[in-house]
Amino acid sequence: MINALKNSFINEDITNAFDEEMQVFLKKINIDQVPSNYTRFYDKYMSKKKVVVTNIKINNKILHQSKLLNYFKNASSFKNIDKELGIHLKKIKKNKKYFFSMKDIIFIEALKSDGIKIEKKYSNLYEVNNSQMPSDIQLYINNGDIGSAMLRIVEVIGQDKLEDIDPETMFFIISTLNQLDIDPLRNKILLKVLPLKV
Fold it and tell me: Which of 20, 92, 118, 144 lies 20 to 30 A from 84 at CA?
């Protein structure tokens, strides 16, 4: 299953998106338990080094393209995210012309999933429509069936490039990763689909 997921991400042109989480899974497997036809795959990816995403073009006028994106590159080094987010949301609330897009919602929901607090006075900026989550994926999540949920996500993505997936579909993909607590993969996808340029 790990091999199938890795191949799916390679086909989607996000080759390194699954690497960190894949190593977590692979470390749980003893080399003696790896079938002979997967030992080369196991050896290759057990020693793979972390990939750093760079070259994000910042646009502080749009929430999901703001400097707050740097949080998803390295959450531990981004201090005062709550305060910075509050400053951005205050500006948005004052600007009656600002359109709160689905990508903004994806961005905020990912931060909330990480425990970032959003002040109640900003709760009316957008509404979350949880009915967009396919029931079978939610059932897998509720049952703790991470593998089936991930395979279903790969099926949803199919042959499409991540940048071509509509924001509503991307919302439930990110929501699934939020609920499964697969942050490294989620962060790489966010850095691929939210910025102006990666």
Answer: 20
